[in-house]
Write a structure and sequence with these properties.
Elements: H1 8-17, E1 19-22, E2 27-32, E3 42-48, E4 52-58
Antiparallel strand pairs: 1-2, 2-3, 3-4
């Protein structure tokens, strides 16, 4: 988050209302364009376990088919 200049509030917004793409049943990307940023899309890499684990935050994310 610090390296990408993303706040905890922005991470929550991405996870709560961003678009999602599943890699498999427990691994996914949540991503969203955020205003006033030139490095969109911002992506949270998530693992669904007993809790939702945010593994990392990426920027300049591209959705591939």
């Amino acid at each position: 988050m610090v390296e990408r200049n993303v706040t905890i509030e922005q991470v929550v917004e991405i996870v709560d209302i961003g678009e999602t793409k599943f890699a498999d049943a427990t691994h996914l990307w949540a991503y969203k364009a955020l205003p006033n940023r030139d490095d969109n899309l911002i992506c949270a890499v998530l693992v669904l376990e007993d809790k939702v684990v945010v593994k990392t935050i990426m920027h300049h994310f591209e959705v591939l088919p």
